[in-house]
Write the structure tokens for this entry.
Amino acid sequence: MSALFSGEFWAFVGVVAGIYTILALGLQLEFGFTGLLNFGQVGFMAIGAYTMAILVVKDGLSIWIAGGLGVVAAGAAGLMLGLPAARLRSDYFAIVTIAFSEIVRYVATNENSLTGGSQGTIALGKGYQAAEYNGEWERFQAHVQTTLGIGSRDATMLVIVWTVTIVLLALVWLAVRTPWGRVLRAIREDEDAAASLGKNVLAYKLQALVLGSALAGVAGLLYAFQFSFFSPDDFQPLLTFFAWMILLLGGLGRVWSVPIGALVFGFLFSGTRFLDFAPLSYLDSGQRAYVRLIVIGVVIIGLVLFRPQGILGRREEMVLE
Amino acid sequence: VFWQLVANGLVTGSVFAIAAVGVTIVYGILRLVNFAYGDFMSFGALAAYAFNGPLHVALLPAVLLAMVCTAGLSLLLDAVLWRPLRARRAGFMSLFLASIGLALILRQSLFLAYGPQPETFRVNPYKVYVLGSVRLGEGQFIAVVTAGCVIVAIAVFLARTTLGRTMRALADDRSLAAIAGINTSRVIAFTWLLSGLLAGLAGVLAGLAQSSFDPNFGFQLLLPVFAAVVLGGIGSAYGALAGGLALGLAMELSTWPPFFGGVNPVYEPVVAFVVLTAALLVRPQGLFGKARLV
């Protein structure tokens, strides 16, 4: 119960909410503005995180170069998937993207020599030495902490993550206001109409997909830095569903609704840890984890049934169909 | 080795085929990609386990009871969830997300009820059926024989019975079928019933074929089942049967050593999606889907 009042715990919740915001922001661009049903977002996150970790540990690159390449790799994967898949009908596209993210996870689990296998990034190095990719990040974080005079390590991470998040939100907010963003919305509303006006629909869809995947890549980097170790199990399809739920909670077709959705989700997901009354108090912590996911499922269905435009969504702009 | 792989492929493929029909008939009529279907399969397998294991019911009645339970759950959910969503004219996206929410609820409830440890049915693990150079365990043998019979039964049902024909008519064009005097809500209820029965059966057979199962196992089977559905053309029941068998065979045969040295068996699900992607590139509407593209 004491964790309820600990700043450390809530700083952690805030960091995770920031990472989820970036993950869901990619989906907002793809679905909320372009109408693409990407259900494999977590796969791009994994590609970003793994590319960075592998390049740092195996090739000794600086985290900044390796991180940049991780984001590029995530975007490139979006392009590779989009080239065959973006022509598909939306239901086929949804299934193919989920499949893609599961393939990424299978490969990460089984290609031990490349990814460290199911043990995760600890096993990236040679022999029995535990591998680390975040030494440079730790030093950067310590530097930020002393420069800004922040009290704790967790609070520093909170500041860094939300700075990145707000910059990315602002960039996407600006981008969807340009003529380019209007074409995306036109495609969302009516693909054929946009095509008949001479817009190359496939090219615009691919651009949205690449940017959305690159955002997932950034989320993957921050995730890797926050936890300083990860394994394929961290990239279950569940994470994609969390991102979708955040999108729905906040509202579709808007940029600043995403962080609101992520914060509500963060409090809901972490806050349910503290529900300690009967009959919940009869369950052990493992069983309560199941209950938490049941609550998430109920909220998803409730949103779909009773508030399909999300908390902040405008009905005129976009309603879930 | 080759014929052994063919036999394994038929076991896997026939289970996929049954599951895929259960997914595709619901899609055909309701335009719902049921993400909770894998968890229906887990529900069926674990219900059969509950009757077969702790309650000591023989395997056959346990399976039938489990199928009835799964179908009952399927009908119940139609009444409390899918019917209200239909009344709101919910589109593909709403239905898909609702099924994801439902999948979470079902799977975690199964975890709460059974715990995470793997369970097995009461079959003799040492009994082996030998056919020429092929050896099948008892669970696999039961699975493939049952699945073969059920596949034929489904095909006959869809082709020859009035109800089967009306279901296909509804999948073809719902408003036209309604104008022609078909009682759509009755057919929809029946579709959920059939889908539930098939999910329960497919779950049990998959559990028999792979010998142990936990509340997660249905979800792990869901993606190859989806691949089979898409391969056959979403909404086409015959396509799903063919897609399931083709995919099961492709997955097992890809491990055959003369085939590029044989794919590592852990990548069998990946093979399913490579086959799927290749097929979609050639025929974006699926092998048996109608060519009303995009």
Summary: The mean pLDDT of chain B is 84. The beta strands of chain B are 128-131, 134-137. Chain B touches chain A at residues 27, 31, 33, 81, 84-85, 88, 90-94, 96-98, 100-105, 107-109, 111-112, 223, 226-227, 230, 234, 264, 266-267, 269-270, 273, 276-277, 280-281, 284, 293-294 (CB under 8 Å).
